[in-house]
Design brief:
The chain has 879 residues and is of the alpha+beta class. The chain has 25 helices and 22 strands. The strands form five sheets. A seven-stranded antiparallel β-sheet has the order 8-6-5-4-12-11-10. Strands 15, 16, 17, 18, 19 and 20 form a six-stranded mixed β-sheet that branches. A four-stranded antiparallel β-sheet has the order 1-2-3-9. The longest helix is centred in the last third of the chain and has 26 residues, at 853-878.
């Protein structure tokens, strides 16, 4: 999957550490100002020198672009025929900070670039390939006039032409010791500190040139003149929000990042592109082709894929001319290399089905290798570390003209030796950060909670012994699952979150079935650990082979097809997804987040052909884990922090299941079928399923007797003492169950009372011929009856329940007063009616004797709020 470092930083805003106190300032060099890419290069003083004088005593490194090096100075030797042609320029980050999205080993970005000489200035420009037209046509001139290329860097020409080669010299230090990746912006986004690139203290670590590639490893220094501190709050006011500076540095004013630039030769002949079909999930390059105005849409979408051609086109099964080779970086722990290799090679099964033998190869980088897997010519898998890193990523870089994948690097967060059990905090399913890509891959980041949940529950049952070979096998199976998923991204495949619905619970419990078919229709899903109910049959815990969708998606992208019949053949392949339920597909846009996630069949972390039944099972398994945990007897001297961590895991799984269940309310199943399919693209969820989902929520998350812990257990849920001092609730020694539970309840309540969801419920009769549809009054009544059950029965609400009840009133009042202008009028009217009913219920409850003071005060406060609301509503309506 293509994911830039800047998108990683957007995702990193949800990572822990935001409450860390600032480090103590120390002495550091001030930041040097950084020039924008378009800043003119400083002209060389005086006349150009003879070629030989400039590189006197320098070492020559011939290659794609000739290099000369003397001490810390490096020169590029450019020939006249190298001005104009396109090259592939990419950059990666071999060294970083280990926090908040800046991790060593991440893939960066790429451009198609060209060199241009203007007088005695050399420019490095990025070609704008997104807009095109057939060369030689009038519209091609209009395209050239309408869209701009971008200047990445420039530097002065230093030498006269070489006497024979006619080449000239440019200092690489001046051209490339710059912030081309815009890392200063990334640092400021992550830490809200104005770090600047310091060219004077940056240098080349290594340069090399080969016939097909020239590489530059840069040690880039960034610095702060002074720390930005938050403004002082007024007395009595809450503290101003403050993002702490990096916590992994000795001195927060000075840091080094590694840039690895690769300037590579493009293929002599561009690959023939393959047009994408929205019924199959591939990453695409979108180009605007203005050649003809007969098409209703100028955009064309090209599938991302490796160039794969049969060595023997006539053979039914042939080796490729050039296989797809993945290098295992030497930093991968030896104990996991065979598992990683197995996950990569699993994809050969899909290529064999379309006629390629050994389409993918895996090679190990030698321990003494003097080259980097960050090079553009080495697709790779590598480990990376960070104090808050627990994710995997599978980005790739492509030729945007054709969709050809030119490089890919899978990064694996190193959490496997701990079985995913490092401390993390997850009560509410995380939403995407503002501006983050909707299709960013957070599989490992979220799956580590699944790994911990599965291991904890199996250990509590006595089915898995800590530190045993069985636990090692459990972790390895999870690692293979993640590797297959990320390699799928590097082959061009997007997520498929509908794939989890293709197998029944009976099939998932059949070990023979899951071994042969997997536990879901695709490894591109976010698949939970497949744990059976206690005493039931148990299939494989994790995905260990490809699913039917994976074979289909590879076929569409890579099957050798007759060029004259390719369009028709691709249409037939894509249409199979409309008839075969095993090829069910839905991706990030359908899965969405919060109220925008309208399709309950396209969800992260569900499993089985009855997703709602599975979510009820998942809540039950979480309750089982909490019950078993409260019976656990720790050994003398054992720390209590494991109890707190596992409790947090169980609550997080319950919150995630509840959020997915809430998608059934106002749910609309959306499929990508084309005309001719018997299915309608938009099909509201039937009324019975929506009522079942509401009963699940009111009987679990919103039930008065749910989510309770024994006092003797809750009093032992303390924190790791070495985590204290980093700020935030996670490091507080006291554990507040009510705060954790209320956070889940607030999130789910906000999801189901969102105007977009209520609008879909109101719109259901327009899209569904069924007479039995779910109505909005059912939603209000179901929530109100469950949340205010104590008031109706004369029971005393706990502190947690009082918090939920206040939140319910707050959100309902917001509907009545139209805090959100998108609130439908019917929802506002029903909310007012519902609050009138609540007013009568509370007055009746107050008339009963024996109420506790907290409860009585709580009800009186709510009644006062309701009175003010109704007055304000009447005044607003009269305006």
């Amino acid at each position: 999957m293509r994911l830039t470092a800047f998108a990683l930083l957007l995702a990193a805003q949800a990572l822990p550490g935001a409450d860390t106190p600032p480090a103590k300032p120390q002495a550091a060099p001030p930041a040097a100002p950084t020039a924008a890419p378009g800043t003119p290069a400083t002209a060389a003083p005086g006349a150009l020198k003879p070629f030989a004088d400039v590189i006197k005593e320098a070492k020559e490194m011939p290659g794609l672009v000739g290099l000369w090096q003397k001490d810390d100075k490096v020169w590029l030797e450019l020939k006249p025929d190298q001005l104009g042609p396109l090259y592939f320029l990419s950059w990666n980050f071999p060294q970083a900070l280990g926090e908040r999205g800046l991790y060593g080993g991440m893939m960066g970005d790429s451009h198609l670039v060209y060199f241009k000489r203007i007088g005695n200035t050399l420019q490095l420009l990025a070609r704008n390939t997104a807009f095109t037209a057939q060369e030689g046509t009038p519209i091609a001139q209009a395209v050239a006039e309408g869209f701009s290329d971008s200047l990445l860097a420039s530097a002065p020409v230093l030498s006269l032409p070489h006497p024979e080669r006619k080449s000239f010299l440019v200092e690489a230090n001046a051209l490339l010791l710059k912030d081309l990746p815009m890392a200063a912006t990334q640092l400021e986004f992550a830490f809200r500190q104005p770090y600047g690139f310091d060219a004077g203290n940056s240098s080349f670590l290594k340069v090399a040139s080969a016939p097909d590639q020239t590489t530059f490893s840069v040690n880039a220094h960034f610095a702060l003149a002074k720390l930005v501190i938050p403004p002082v709050s007024m007395p009595g006011a809450p503290p101003m929000p403050f993002t702490p500076p990096p916590r992994t540095l000795e001195d927060v004013r000075s840091l080094f990042l590694g840039f690895h630039y690769s300037l590579a030769k493009l293929p002599a002949e561009p690959m023939k592109p393959r047009l994408a079909d929205d019924r199959v999930g591939h990453f695409v390059s979108t180009r605007w082709d203005f050649t003809t105005d007969f098409q209703p849409d100028e955009r064309i979408h090209l599938v991302h894929r490796w160039r794969l051609e049969k060595a023997d086109p006539a053979a039914a099964l042939s080796r490729p001319k050039q296989p797809i080779v993945y290098w295992l970086d030497k930093n991968i722990p030896e104990r996991y290399r065979e598992t990683v290799k197995a996950g990569i090679l699993e994809w050969n099964k899909a290529f064999e089905r379309i006629g390629f033998k050994d389409a993918i190869e895996v090679k190990q980088q030698p321990a003494d290798a003097d080259w980097s897997t960050h090079d553009a010519r080495h697709a790779s898998v590598r480990w990376f570390l960070g104090v808050d890193a627990g994710f995997a990523i599978g980005p790739s870089m492509v030729d945007p003209r054709t969709g050809e994948i030119l490089d890919a690097d899978v990064g694996m967060g190193e959490i496997f030796t701990r079985g995913g059990r490092e401390e993390f905090h997850e009560e509410i399913p995380p939403a995407a950060a503002p501006g983050a890509r909707a299709d960013r891959c957070t599989y490992l980041a979220e799956a580590r909670g699944e790994l911990a949940f599965g291991a904890d529950l199996l250990e509590a049952r006595g089915d898995l012994e800590p530190g045993s070979p069985a636990e090692e096998a459990f972790v390895r199976s999870y690692l293979k699952d993640v590797v297959m998923h990320e390699i799928g991204h590097t082959l061009g495949l997007r997520h498929n979150f509908r794939a989890s619905t293709v197998y029944s619970e009976a099939q998932l419990g059949d070990k023979a079935f899951t071994t042969g078919h997997g536990i879901t229709g695709s490894v591109m899903d976010y698949t939970p650990t497949n744990i059976a109910r206690n005493g039931s049959r148990q299939g494989d815990y994790h995905m260990q082979t490809l699913g039917p969708y994976d074979y289909w998606a590879i076929e569409y992208a890579y099957a050798p097809l007759d060029p004259a019949k390719e369009k028709e053949a691709l249409a037939r392949i894509a249409a199979r997804g409309e008839q075969d339920p095993l090829l069910a597909f839905g991706t990030d846009q359908e899965a969405g987040f919060g109220p925008d996630a309208m399709d309950p069949e396209v969800s992260r972390w569900d499993l089985g052909s009855d997703p709602l039944g599975y979510l009820a099972k998942r809540i039950n398994l979480s309750q089982e884990l909490l019950a078993r945990l409260q019976e656990r007897v720790l050994k003398p001297g054992e720390e209590y922090k494991s109890l707190r961590r596992t409790t947090t895991v169980a609550l997080g799984r319950m919150g995630g299941a509840a959020s997915n269940a809430a998608k059934y309310l106002g749910g609309v199943v959306y499929v990508r079928d084309h005309a001719g399919s018997p299915r309608a693209p938009l099909a509201p969820v039937n009324g019975g399923k929506q009522r079942e989902a509401l009963r699940l929520l009111t009987g679990s998350i919103f039930d008065m007797n749910a989510l309770k812990l024994r006092p003797d257990f809750a009093s032992r849920l303390t924190v790791d003492q070495f985590d204290r001092g980093f700020g935030g609730a996670a490091s507080a020694p006291d554990f507040s169950l009510s705060s954790r539970v209320l956070a889940i309840q607030k999130s789910i309540l906000g999801q189901v009372l969102n105007p977009a969801l209520m609008r879909r419920i109101l719109d259901t009769p327009e899209k569904s011929p069924a007479k039995d549809v779910f109505r909005l009054p059912e939603l209000f009544d179901g929530l109100g009856n469950a949340i205010w059950e104590e008031a109706r029965k004369g029971a005393e609400p706990t502190g947690t329940r009082r918090g939920l009840q206040k939140e319910h009133v707050r959100q309902m009042v917001g509907l009545v007063l139209r805090a959100n202008p998108a609130t439908p009028d019917d929802a506002r009217a029903l909310a007012r009616e519902n609050l009138r009913s609540l007013q009568a219920t509370l007055k009746a409850a107050l008339a009963r004797p024996g109420l506790g003071r907290e409860t009585k005060a709580h009800y009186l406060e709510v009644l006062a709020t309701l009175d003010e609301t109704f007055k304000a509503s009447v005044q607003r309506m009269s305006l």
